[in-house]
Write a structure and sequence with these properties.
Length: 81
């Protein structure tokens, strides 16, 4: 899939950050699960074009590591108070 088609499939612009790309991807898959393969292919294309380790990690693991790191940090900081 070419990059412009990938952005069109997810209905996002090129200038959104990776966090928003993932949020929209998850929302689109939830809304239309039967389109998840096409949406995953679009996300893979965007990850390659951006050379985004965050998006690649999500595709491989099914989890956003930045979200997990933030969650761990917040729990650590609130426990220290």
């Amino acid at each position: 899939m070419d990059p412009s088609r990938a952005y069109s499939v997810l209905e996002i612009s090129v200038d959104v950050d990776d966090e928003l790309v993932l949020a929209v991807f998850m929302l689109r898959v939830e809304e239309q699960p039967h389109q998840s393969d096409k949406r995953r292919e679009a996300l893979r294309t965007i990850a390659e074009v951006r050379d985004s380790s965050r998006l690649r990690h999500f595709l491989e693991e099914g989890k956003d590591r930045m979200y997990l790191l933030g969650f761990i940090l917040i729990n650590y900081l609130t426990a220290a108070v």
